[in-house]
Amino acid sequence: MSNTPSDTSATAAGVRTTGAPGSAAADASGAYIRKGFGLKAEVQETLAADYTGHLVDLLRERDYALEAGDTTIRLAREFGFCYGVERAVDYAYQTRRKFPERRIFLAGEIIHNPHVNAKLQEMGVIFLSAKGKGFDYAPVEPKDVVILPAFGVTIQDFQTLRELGCVVVDTTCGSVLNVWKRVEAYARDGFTSLIHGKYYHEETRATASQVEKYNGGQYLVVRDMAEAELVMDYLEDRAGVQPAREPLSREAFLERFAKAASDGFDPDVHLERVGVANQTTMLARESLAIGAAVGESMTRGYGEAHRAEHFRTFDTICSATQDRQDAVMELLRDPLDLMVVVGGYNSSNTISLAALCAEQVPTYHIADPDEIDVAENRVRYRRIGAKHHEDEMSSWLPTTGPLRIGITAGASTPNNKIGQAVARVFAIRGVDAGSII
Fold first, then answer.
1. Short name of one Pfam family for this protein (predicted)?
2. 147 within 8 A of 172, measured Cβ to Cβ
3. pLDDT tens, 329-359?
4. Same fold, 52-81+319-435 and 176-313
5. pTM of the entire structure?
6. Which fold has domain 176-313?
7. Which of 206, 298, 412, 423 is within CB 3.0–4.6 Å of 433 for a Cys-Cys bond?
8. Which helix H or strand E contains 293, and what residues bound it?
9. Contact indicator for 369, 414 with CB cutoff of 8 Å
């Protein structure tokens, strides 16, 4: 999600706003709202009460470090809510204020943070469940309001909502829209979109759907470099060049990527022209490496001239994701005993941060400060690479002796949750965070 404001009238279905914020048209069924309702000032107090963290403010004031006795906590200089997330949450609160009597639905989760989504549920926002590659809109009626999350939704979802005629409040991040435009251009020009991402992630599903604006548009999603290498081996084998590894057969390839490829995808046909894009919250260095490696593979297979005409790649990692990863790497230059990474377990940008940290120091990825049990000095966390379970560790923090702890948070983590995690770490070390202020 982007660090800087980036708004555009582009949408998955090419819909335009039917009325200015706050106008009569904006109240009508069938309205499409992308720029809020002009109620930002009215919801700011509530937002501040829900998400402001005083300890985080203090960390900023003291050069991102707090010391108490022999305990030091250092915060990465870029962390937590980015502009795209702030905008999405702000618009959700504005929508509730604008339509106090209407049913308000949300397509999935507004962002990948359990605390934020729980707050919206407390406000009466109804979360729509997933259905296929989109969401189940069966409960929605024309008089209702549907909020689209920061990740965006597929073009099929857009079409369904247009047919329903309900009010649509679109919080899709500008950085995501930029990737959509890139993928749409690939499809328009006859290139298959090779997307570095998670095929099941809301953003990647929405991005991949952009190819369907053009007849014959195709996509293939690769999770990591290992999967990208399978694609490169197949491509080189087809070109008559001996690949580095034994390539998959066509049948094995299609089976491996059955859930990650567009309908009708044929590796014998659709790897001829390739354009690389990515889910905006993936590990930036891996996205760039995949783009470079696929280009080199194209050169090995067909030559430089062919590559120039048949391959494209662009860095579509959002600035906020890049900034937070860069800040973590900077933080890790100084000795730390461990890292705490705060953010939802289904938050890709948080997972990427935790993976970077774990390469250099023991790392605990926690979804919420409640995962830290002060009385028992126990933490519940998710190991890097684990998908569906959490581990617990007792005596995870030494209670005596010098200790240097780093902390960061994904772009969907509010400051108050970061501050609460800091307070709990201090408490285990016998320090009342209130005494530091």
1. LYTB
2. no
3. 999 999 999 999 999 999 999 999 999 999 9
4. yes
5. 0.87
6. Cobalt-precorrin-4 Transmethylase; domain 1 (3.40.1010)
7. 423
8. helix 284-302
9. no
